[in-house]
Amino acid sequence: MVSGTYEALFAAVAATAAALTGLLFVAISVSHTRPGRHGPKVIYEVRAAASLISFTSALAVALFGLVPGNNVGYPAAIVGVIGVFFTLAGLRSIMVDPEARRERRHQVGLIILLLLTFGFELWAGIDLLMHPRDRTPLDVLSNLLVASLLIGIARAWELVGDRDTGIIASITTLTGRSPGKS
Prior knowledge:
Helix content: over 70%
Radius of gyration: 17 Å
Number of strands: 0
Order of helices and strands: HHHHHH
Strand content: under 5%
């Protein structure tokens, strides 16, 4: 059960995640109409799925957190497990696709970020199940929900702009090097 402050945050996260999920579907539809703009198909698919899982993770946890009497630890733990498995599946897809060979290194940041986010979400969920009155895991989870929205936005921007917008690629670009070149 969450207090009024968390309820307001969960309501805002749920509304934002729902709107962004709808916009993601539009972005995917529009970006597919521009043939040849995307690199390896698997990279595009992992970017799209990373956006979707980030948005739906935040949406699911926030909505279940708004249900009176619910312990938000359950959905957080479940979504955390799903997110970790999704991320590992995406990593596997990138690793086995020969077309994605040149792009693998640039996806490491996304994979690590997703693993950390979903790993901490799993931890927070388990901690909330074990200690339902402890506010620390709820604070962590609240920040993770906001982070999930930002991760989803960044991945969606990559779909629309068809470029890596991660911190490493951005720093590389600012130093005058092309992110695609070693």
